[in-house]
Amino acid sequence: MIVLLHGPSPERLDAYRQQLLSQADSGLTLVREETGFRLPSFKEHFGFNDSVSQPDIEGLSKPRRHTQNTVAIGEVLLGYPDGYGILPITPVVPNPADPESLLPPFPGTELPDVKDFGHNGSFLVYRKLAQDVAGFWRYIAAQTVDDQGTPDPEAMALIAAKFVGRWPSGTPLTLAPEQDNPQLPDKNAFAYLAEDADGRRCPMGAHIRRTHPRDSLLDAPGEGSVTTSSRHRILRRGSLFGDPLFPLDDIEAGKLPLDIEDDGQLRGLHFFCLNADIGRQFEFVQQTWANDPSFNGLYDNKDPLIGDNDGTGTMTIPRCPVRQRLLNLPRFVAMRGGGYFLLPSLKSLRFLANAP
Ligand code: HEM
Question: Which residues form the signal peptide (predicted)?
Fold first, then answer.
């Protein structure tokens, strides 16, 4: 079991933690504890804003209008139709286990003998992802050095942004191809085909273009791609572990980490996501989009940020007159632990608390 505690300050969080741990009759044994935090700037350890894009959920998100960013409730919550119009698979309990009828019946008529334990719950993916921050910035610096071995900060900032698909502020390259524009009112209202079909702004292989291709999947560009993309969305939350290796707001301020050395400390992202179907959503994004070198017309490119690169792959950056190819891409993010969990609804938690 994983218990996630959140609090507005470390003190409040610790008080809550103590309160829970001191409940001797809880029947729980603490196996392992992890801590995490978020920065006011929402920066992750490489120096980029990691809080921009989330799917809107039909009927729940505001404004209540259907856009290309809207997904069916059943993409995230069990018990509601998903993007295919069918109910996601849900865990059940036999009727006699719920004498007080706290849980709703299994929907439909096929399984009259069971209750829907998953209703209003979701599946939670947790991954502890270590980030090689020094390796990331040293690799990028090495791509920009002149004959004297001096790196070019401006070129570094551009390459890092091409890896992510957004500038450090979160502004997408597709909307602001030349330089960061932190004032952009809506950093998420864009698609790729109209102005960026060939990836000269945001490369095909960039992290955000692979993990959410929007309208740019080559086998069905446009509406078909938007529909396919909407069937592989996840609700993400991240929290950082480990001290930042450099002041994370520096990059946005134009100060690049030129001579960065690793300090031997573990740091990275506690990655969480919610989805109704882990195979079709989280695993698909990780395996079929991030780790596949032949994603969307590419042939030797894995996700430069989170792909399981092994030093042999490439990052292709479309440019005019010739593309740039960055070779021997190392791995910058490695998994240190994690698991798949059911996040039960309040009703299901009450049912568990009532159990004999
Ligand atoms: C240490 C690991 C990771 C880092 C540093 C990272 C960083 C980022 C950043 C900077 C963004 C852009 C800002 C935003 O839209 O919020 C982003 C977006 C995103 N990331 Fe990651 N990420 C990591 C792991 C993952 C993993 C494991 C997945 C899923 C398999 C993932 C899926 C996504 C998705 C779906 C988006 C939004 C794309 C869009 O809608 O445009 N990320 N990530």
Answer: none
